Fold this sequence. Notes:
Layout: E1 2-11, E2 14-24, E3 29-33, H1 40-47, E4 55-59, E5 66-69, H2 81-86, H3 90-107, H4 111-130, H5 133-146, H6 163-177, E6 181-185, H7 193-204, E7 209-213, H8 217-223, E8 226-231, E9 234-239, H9 242-277, H10 284-296, E10 322-333, E11 336-347, E12 351-355, H11 362-369, E13 377-382, E14 388-391, H12 405-412, H13 421-427, H14 444-457, E15 462-466, H15 474-485, E16 490-494, H16 498-504, E17 507-512, E18 515-520, H17 523-539, H18 544-601, H19 610-646
Parallel strand pairs: 3-7, 3-8, 5-6, 6-7, 12-16, 12-17, 14-15, 15-16
Antiparallel strand pairs: 1-2, 1-4, 8-9, 10-11, 10-13, 17-18
Helix pairs in contact: 3-4, 5-6, 8-16, 9-10, 12-14, 18-19
Amino acid sequence: MLQLKKIGYRIADKWLFREIDWVINPGRRLALIGPNGAGKTTLLRIINGELPPECGTMIKPRGYRIGYLPQEEIAVGKGPILLQVLEGNREVLEIEAEMAELHTRLEGTENRRQEKLLIQLGDLEHRFQVLGGYELESQAKKILTGLGFTERDFQRPVSEFSGGWRMRVYLARLLLQQPDLLLLDEPTNHLDLPSLEWLEDYLQDFPGSMIVVSHDRFFIDRLAQEIAELENKKLVHYSGNYHFYEKQKVLLEEQLLKRWEEIREEKEKLQRFIDRFRYKASKAPQVQSRIKRLEKLEEIELPKQTTQMRFRIQTPVQSYQQVCLCENLVFAYDGNPVLKELDFKIQRGERIALVGPNGVGKTTLTRLIAGELQPQQGKIVLGQRVRYGYYAQHQADRLNGDAKIIDEVSETAAPALRSDVRNVLGMFRFSGEDTEKKIGVLSGGEKARVSLAKILLSPVNFLIMDEPTNHLDAASKEALEQALADYDGTLLLISHDRYFLDKLVRRVFELQEGRLQIFEGNYSDYLRRRAGMNAQSKSGERPENEKAGAVARNKKERKRQEAQLRQSISGKRRKLEQSIAALEQQIDVMEQEKQQLEAEMAEPDFFADEQAAAEKVRRYKQLQEKLPVKLLQWENEQHELDELLNTI
């Protein structure tokens, strides 16, 4: 276990964070999140021992091993990849070298001296086995393969690879070491999707503790058991994954705002009494009492409120039911087939993710749908009254470099949406004088955001979007998610942001080796279905007669198990619903009692009966302590019920 107590760090006279308390228990997977500049990397470097804290202490057991993957490129050595990974386990390699030397000495040693050497060799072999030395090389190769290296890469020098691939080598080295605590700072930056999914699966079985910093919300959601948010110089802890954190944070902020308003109202009431009776001798004791109460009221600092841009995309004209029909579609580049006899339909209102490895033809398919490319065989037909908008990175090249941002976007905006142009530009971080800039002076990322604003404001009912979140900060991304969640048209998305897809899509088109496979549900459902199919494939197909016999034998048992599962879920659901209803009733009663006590405590003659007043103050403090506990219990049981309903 590692423990941080009152850790603080400042740059010059400015505190980056202070009073940080954190206990990292064995085997726990934690995510450290927060806005850029909050100090996440600095905190990881303090934990790793690279930076001394300004104040506070860090407590860890003797021999506690920490492995740290930084964001920036790190020196890994110059030898072959496999050797560089193995050298992370220096003790194992040294023991192996000693064992080899002893074997050599044994060959030329007289019998009477061999016994002593054999004892030494036995001790070394035992230690080698305990450290996993016999499996070390095979485990290293397994990790390297999972991270995207091929067997022929193992003996290639590290220097032949780019920075991103060298970071993968260092990550493999850390994973092979299996430290007590693994610190990963933006590990997804250097990985493609297959390697990322492998790493997620691997880390779920990692025996040590880990702290992950990542902008990949899906990665955090799959791994994290706890969330620690570093914001406004403080660290706030949430038990659960990223989904739970989002819900819990909203609830806690609502509770904090309510408490802040209660304290503000109480201060105003006390101050009014003090101002009214300050110079009245007969009220002096009551005035002094209220002055003391005013001084003792807690000070609550509200979190900084970020401007939430909300925008609803409305289709000016609904399309007919069939939006897109694809039949026997074939497309090739220079004779190399990319898409092979694709068949699919897209219906009005569908929300589809198009996924697959890089280079498989996802962008080619969207360009075919948008009419930028023509099929070499088969057909793609858009339905009647379909008006599509196509967003892709190259769309930025079609902007008028001499036009102002505001004019470029307004020119193609739907008449009903022209009043929203400035709001939408603000959503993508163009406000005030920025909207008057000419397109020609913008960076590539800024042009991409202008193109995105144009598409959203255009009079379309079928949005085709290729990596729309690439140039967006967290606030803009959330605003786009909200806008697309409310969109009443048809949506086809390509994105590497899996959390973004998970929130929005209800169907997944997977493109692999030129073929299309369709999965119902969101991205998480797709992953579960695909994992099940892969597991079935690995287990091997049984002969047809054996398979039929197994189906017949297991049909009744499966039905019995399904019925038993439904009964179990139904029972748990009923208990949870009853408990939640009881909690809601208790919370209502307690809140009403608290409001009644507040009203009584605000009365000028409240302390006339000191014994009764003291009893009411005691009860008020009890309610202050018990209400947050009840609310947290209600939130946890509601979350448990939601999870249970998702399994039905």
